[in-house]
Fold this protein.
Amino acid sequence: MTNINPNQKFTNARLMAVQACYAKEMNDERWEKITSKFLLGEIGGQVIEDGVAGREKYIDLQPADAALFTKLVKEYQEKEDVINDIIRTNLGEKLDYERMEVLLKCVLRMGIAEFYANPDLASAIIVNEYVDMTRAFFSGVEAKIVNALLDRFAKVIRD
């Protein structure tokens, strides 16, 4: 029997929220339509495990926590301008928000949204979840960027 991490549904909800943010950015559909597609399982729920472009192998994820997914997307929708301004002003001189990879922006957006959405959840859990997710997508300095920005934001919002 496979061991199932009981917290995996929350990790998957966070991933799904990042995927929804990415879908919104790439397709410019209404949030309601994107959210509905994810909740109905029409999109999302899979990740690329391995493969060469055009021959990727996908694996299905365990079900995500729909309540957390919805909460994160709603929080980002309500605070979109504030969250994007937080990212812009905390990037430093070396990084340009407008030239930043869309997926990295989405990870940061949902990480910050989660601080607002889950004020009682330990900052370290939020930071670690999004840093780990970033490592799954990127192999460069991106995880350090996410760690630094979310950690800095945690100190501002939680202190």
